[in-house]
Amino acid sequence: MAYMQRSELAAWGELTAKEFLEKRGVLLLANNYRNRYGEIDLIGIDADSYIFFEVKTRQSINFGFPEESVSEEKLLRIETVGWSFLEEKKAENEDWRIDIIAIIRDPKTACYEIQWIKNVSTEN
Length: 124
Description:
globular
C-alpha cells in the first residue's frame, strides 16, 4: 500500500464514513451537500435528529488528529449551511447537531481507526 493523494484520501474517507454510519442505522440524506454558504460532507437522520457530519481523514498523526483540524470557523460555516438545508426541507423546528467522523488510515496496511464524535459545538 502507499500514501493516497489528498483528494483520493478524502473520497475514500467519505465513502468509509458513509458505510460506517449506515451500519449504525443512520439514514443518509445527502453527501457533499453544497449551497451558497458552503458545503457539508454528509447529512443524515438518527433518532429524529438531523446530523451534519464533517469527515476528516488522515494518513498519520504527524500534524495532529483529524478532528483537531475542524476549526470554530468551519463549525460556524457548517451551522450556516445546515440552517439553510433545514429551511429548504421545511424542517427548521427539528432537532439537529454537528458530528465529526475522524479517520486515521495506515497507508502501509490499509487498516484504519474511525471515531464518531457527537454533538461538537462552537460553544465548547
